[in-house]
Amino acid sequence: MAVVGRLCVSVAWRAAWRGYISLPVNGSGCRYTNLRWALQTHCYISAPCGVTVQQSRQSSFFNKLTADELWKGVLANTSSRQKKGRGKRSKKKLRKDLNKGQIIGEGRSGILWPGLSIPVMVDGKAQVISQHKKEQREIQDEILRRRDEWEKKRKVKVKKERGWTGRSWGGISLGPPDPGPNGETYEDFDCQVLELKSVACMTGREGQKKSASALVVVGNGNGAAGFALGKAKDRLVALRKAKNQAIHYLHYIERYQDHTIYHDITTTFKKTTIQMRKKHKGYGLHCHRAIITVCKLIGITDMYAKVCGSPHMLNLTKALFKGLANQKTHQDLANEKSLHVVEFREEQGPLPILVASPQGAVRKDPETIEEVPDVKLEWNENVNAVQRLQYCKGRKTWYLQHIPSLHDQLTSHIAFPMGFRDSCKPLMKAMGIKEV
């Protein structure tokens, strides 16, 4: 009888170890299907007939949920909360990347597992389970502590990340465009956002359909630049589409001595007009903030520009590229007029500097000079200045009688406001007004 009992126990033990039957364990209220897994995890065998087992569940409620579902429960960012406005004034919780700084196989206790965190064989010897030294564990704890402190600190954004105002997408750098399908890279280019807005269109089947519209400009700072408009339901997708599309619509902009435009430009697109003025080196960019962003990507460092009419961002960008792409270089002007193009500088005095010569024969007859120059009158710049000058001439007698010493200074100051002295000279010559 004892032999039969020992035989039954051995058969049951072998079958339970291989996972064939369910083995009831004395002194425990649980039943294990696979005893091999139980013995490898939490099992202590005191005797062949009695086994003490610590209950351990393989799955739980938290193991069944994904990370997105768990974070959704913590942040409570539901559509109903956003519509009803609950908790908008409370401190907003941010999602954290808990895998940041973690290494597979490394834990808080610092145990080294062969085949996971260390090699299985080293110099022909099998490694055993060991533990990090105390100094190494302190270093890892310090790294984790700094990571937690860094998340709590207020992050300071640099200029490219901050943009124009810090609360809008305008002026934020997106980096270079993505590599092309054939492996071409655009590391020399940089992309910046001009406008990112939410748009909606009404459809008969879906109703109001919302999407995001992104206007992105790309340039290498050496004359090549372009822009594109991207639309998608997601903002990041719209930015990526606009960034990768802008690289395929590049314009080459001519620059005078690699710092400014060749001549004054007035360009119009729909209801938007831009007046651009050529400036000397070191003047800087005195323009609209979107024009400053585009000029930096082109490589223009000195220019004055004034926007008249509608400041619509897309029309403003199209007008700017239209004017810069249609400007005439000195060589184009020399070929058109069949004359030499010279430049006068203050440090050179009356000595002209040859800038460009025509490719063909030089015309012998001089260019006719009209008595009344064909100059478009701009109210803010020219007309207002000339009217003030005429007003001063009418009161010339009063100035000479009362303040004769300040007459020349006051007349010169009123005649040329805002620094547009050169633009007033053709009008003064046409109206018979001498410069004071």
Automatic annotation (TrEMBL):
<dbReference type="GO" id="GO:0003735">
    <property type="term" value="F:structural constituent of ribosome"/>
</dbReference>
<keyword id="KW-0496">Mitochondrion</keyword>
<dbReference type="InterPro" id="IPR000851">
    <property type="entry name" value="Ribosomal_uS5"/>
</dbReference>
<dbReference type="InterPro" id="IPR014721">
    <property type="entry name" value="Ribsml_uS5_D2-typ_fold_subgr"/>
</dbReference>
<dbReference type="Pfam" id="PF03719">
    <property type="entry name" value="Ribosomal_S5_C"/>
</dbReference>
<keyword id="KW-0689">Ribosomal protein</keyword>
<dbReference type="GO" id="GO:0003723">
    <property type="term" value="F:RNA binding"/>
</dbReference>
<protein>
    <recommendedName>
        <fullName>Small ribosomal subunit protein uS5m</fullName>
    </recommendedName>
</protein>
<dbReference type="GO" id="GO:0006412">
    <property type="term" value="P:translation"/>
</dbReference>
<dbReference type="Pfam" id="PF21251">
    <property type="entry name" value="Ribosomal_uS5m_N"/>
</dbReference>
<dbReference type="InterPro" id="IPR048584">
    <property type="entry name" value="Ribosomal_uS5m_N"/>
</dbReference>
<feature type="region of interest" description="Disordered">
    <location>
        <begin position="79"/>
        <end position="99"/>
    </location>
</feature>
<dbReference type="GO" id="GO:0005763">
    <property type="term" value="C:mitochondrial small ribosomal subunit"/>
</dbReference>
<keyword id="KW-0687">Ribonucleoprotein</keyword>
<dbReference type="GO" id="GO:0005743">
    <property type="term" value="C:mitochondrial inner membrane"/>
</dbReference>
<feature type="compositionally biased region" description="Basic residues">
    <location>
        <begin position="81"/>
        <end position="95"/>
    </location>
</feature>
<dbReference type="InterPro" id="IPR020568">
    <property type="entry name" value="Ribosomal_Su5_D2-typ_SF"/>
</dbReference>
<feature type="domain" description="S5 DRBM">
    <location>
        <begin position="189"/>
        <end position="253"/>
    </location>
</feature>
<dbReference type="Pfam" id="PF00333">
    <property type="entry name" value="Ribosomal_S5"/>
</dbReference>
<dbReference type="InterPro" id="IPR005324">
    <property type="entry name" value="Ribosomal_uS5_C"/>
</dbReference>
<comment type="similarity">
    <text>Belongs to the universal ribosomal protein uS5 family.</text>
</comment>
<dbReference type="InterPro" id="IPR013810">
    <property type="entry name" value="Ribosomal_uS5_N"/>
</dbReference>
